[in-house]
Amino acid sequence: MLDVPSTYYHDFNPTLDDVRAAHERIRGKIVRTPLLRSERLDDRLGGTIWLKAETLQTTGSFKFRGALNRILQFDEVQRKNGIVAWSSGNHALALSYAASRQAVKATILMPQEAPKTKIDGARANGAVVRLYDKTKETREAIGAEIAATTGAVIVPPYDDPDIILGAGTVGLEIVEQAEEAGIKLDAVLACCSGGGLVAGTSVAVTGASPGTAVYSVEPADFDDMARSLASGKPQRNDPSALSICDALLVPTPGFYTLPVCSAHLAGGLSATDTEVIEAVRFAYSELKLVVEPGGAVALAAVLSGKLDVRNKNVAVILSGGNVDPDKFASYIA
Amino acid sequence: MLDVPSTYYHDFNPTLDDVRAAHERIRGKIVRTPLLRSERLDDRLGGTIWLKAETLQTTGSFKFRGALNRILQFDEVQRKNGIVAWSSGNHALALSYAASRQAVKATILMPQEAPKTKIDGARANGAVVRLYDKTKETREAIGAEIAATTGAVIVPPYDDPDIILGAGTVGLEIVEQAEEAGIKLDAVLACCSGGGLVAGTSVAVTGASPGTAVYSVEPADFDDMARSLASGKPQRNDPSALSICDALLVPTPGFYTLPVCSAHLAGGLSATDTEVIEAVRFAYSELKLVVEPGGAVALAAVLSGKLDVRNKNVAVILSGGNVDPDKFASYIA
Predict the structure, then answer these.
(1) A64-154 has which fold?
(2) pLDDT tens digits, residue range B212-226?
(3) Can you tell me the distance from the alpha carbon of A159 to that of A157, in angstroms, rounded to the nearest whole number?
(4) Which CATH class is domain A16-62+160-332?
(5) Contact residues, chain B, for A56 at CB < 8 Å
């Protein structure tokens, strides 16, 4: 039993059917991303690795699923008042694009130091981007003020039931695709920041494929989910911690996500920045896929032996591929 | 009627069934690469583009299909004597890997200036790589000498029936996948050097989907196939021509490929190096795929408007993704 304050949502107990309902809602509007294989990767690890390439999702990350699942449930007033949200990147890209597709106005708050690719992308998608200074302003305060004055709906990046269920469709498709390939998965590894992807995925996978273990994977110094699961109490990261995984720099698990993860995950893994760069490079040279650091952390975990995958079928989510060219060049050099 | 010397193989008239037989032979040993979509690409072009990502094929290019199709038909003596081949890269990678998987020895002749990625890759696959100086030696002479002294089988990169039929399985899968998606393709665009891919693809596509037009796409100053088709006579490229498409620098169409292409292609397109770089950059930023210049030439053709794709369903083959990191960094910068 997780020992957390009452601010955490223990009464949010999503089921496989909830994820299936989200999938019905967004199916045909999202990419059913392929589950890829690489002989070279399998040879190296001695197991069978199934790569869920959410890098190939619309807007380059799994975030599009949750964003669309949320917006498609807006009523007329919400559609008219629009959205306000904050994000260092992938949620911004996904939400701004999903909003523009649904003719809903979006205002996105992004930290000044967010990757230029992501800031430019959100603007190109038609969103109003408001940059803020992390050291002087809090995004929650700016967002609340905009919501209060305009009636805009705040759409959080992960700590929201519909965002979690939308993200969980990744897990549902993984199980479907594994069945199509005639195999049963031993484990699924999901990149983890606030925990939306891994929470939703764990609901879908443990529901549809009992016995398949689901793990979160975080950057080494941002392993708040792993430590929270291990200790049974929510843990925070050291505020001075740094990582190249710009998409995964959340200080602590979400109020919605932690109880779900606690109920469904087999455990939490992590990978260092050095291991992540090796994974980005491997994805470039051997898989021919562009994966951003935060999207490569689960691959990094298997490449660096954090889980014994020998003679096992293991699915690894590549969660995003939005990375500035100069950074990418330095990783693959 | 093509007006070419008798050295060209007019009596090689492969059919859809021949490609199907090759597919039966290699199926399960190759990757059935996905046919990908991008809303962003469709929006930009006003058509529906289906990307056949052969970059995700084993060894990073379509070449693995032909190499495997050839080697799987070796008899015991051929298997024992091994292979000798020449290639600037992708054929070398594919053949060396296919050979090692089938426990056949391979000797590969590569020009000194071939991409380091490709030279290192062929060696890592267990091949003996012999570098040669293009200005002083001819690969055909070196290869013939090795074949004469060792009994090794010469496996050409494209001008060989089994290589062409193996490559043609790309086209067969494209039609299958289009049918699975419930659409009929208006056109298929294949990158073209010696013409193995486009010849095999044209046989499969025109056979399985009558009315679908197949086009070769070449680098602008290496458009020997396009000019040969247009003039009805084999054409050569200017020996001083240069292109960043290192995989597509063949001087003239093949003896086997030209008559097949003449019988089945709707025409030949081309793209400049500037247009190719734009396509490599687009694949990086919007598709999250690593595509080498020669593998991006067909995408470059549609992005630069060489074919009217508005309101059409058009398949574009991304034929390879083996590119040195420093070169790739310069293209996406």
Answers:
(1) Rossmann fold (3.40.50)
(2) 999 999 999 999 999
(3) 6
(4) alpha beta
(5) 36, 287-289
